[in-house]
Write the structure tokens for this entry.
Amino acid sequence: MLPTTNYQLQTDRGYIAITSITIISLLLMGIVFAVSSSSFLTRSNILNQEFKEQSFSLAEACVDSALLKLVQNGSYSGNENILIGNDQCSILLIETISGQKIIKTRAVFKKATTNLKITVSSSNLSLISFEELAKF
């Protein structure tokens, strides 16, 4: 066996140091990437939630508009779009079934959709049910 020189020991230590630094750098980059992508996805989810709240508010505004029009004219049948600021919502055809009126509204805001179905008494327009549906 040949004697080990001081130069060879330093070279071996250099390779170990470079390998260690490379592994630690890759681990740190992986952690930074995971944290930053998690933050990005959280921001996206919050934005989608805001869009959903906006579409829900628009659909509710259409419900209020339909109820007002029913108070003013008991034979109001719906089937119209309502402009609210720069946005709009739709009142679908109002159904009358056994003393009840069913009001369906739809609003879309930046791909977030809300479909509301409200059932009221035909006689005094008191609320019987209020629900959000995935589809009509």
